[in-house]
Amino acid sequence: MKNRILKSILALLALIPSVALADITMHIDALNDEFWFSGSATGTLTLEDTYSRVQWSSSSSAEFGDAFVVGLANAFTFETVDMEVDIDIFDSDDTIKVLLSYNNATTAGTLTANSYTVYTYDSAFGGLSTTQEAAFESLIGQTIPLGSYGSGFGGLQVVPEPSEVASALGLGALAAAMILRRRKTA
Fold first, then answer.
1. Termini Cα distance of the chain
2. What is the dihedral of CA 11, 14, 16, 17, to 10 degrees?
3. Which of 106, 156, 157, 169 is most buried, by CB atoms within 10 Å?
4. Cα–Cα nearest to 12, from 165, 186, 181, 160
5. With a threshold of 0.85, does the pTM exceed it?
């Protein structure tokens, strides 16, 4: 009996995807409507006017129509300077862009995420439509490639977070318990 339970637990653990995280990762907790960033990477920002920028984009197409834009403070630092993060979600083609910029001519260095800054969809994304929220959450499991600004940085990996993994494990454990109970009564 103990061996069966141990085998069931090991089988459930095997279902958890093993993913090597990218240098910069966006964590989305869709059950609690929260997201945050983690990691660091070294690269070169693109200097445009007086702003230094790096951008990741889920689409290479030109966006048209309205975009929902939210500015997030304190999510990243570049060397020692805090960067403003804009997340743009376009209505027309569900393109999502993550743009980091600051008013400084420094372009080469290390970008570091502040993983202690957690954003909630409800407060940070007050005007987000259900379509835009679905597009945002559909990024889970993808790597967003570097867009038109910046070089040397890897893609922005988007991963699900603990409450989703915990709920999947809970359902798996429930299913295993039901199967074991059914076998026991048979």
1. 15
2. -150
3. 156
4. 165
5. no
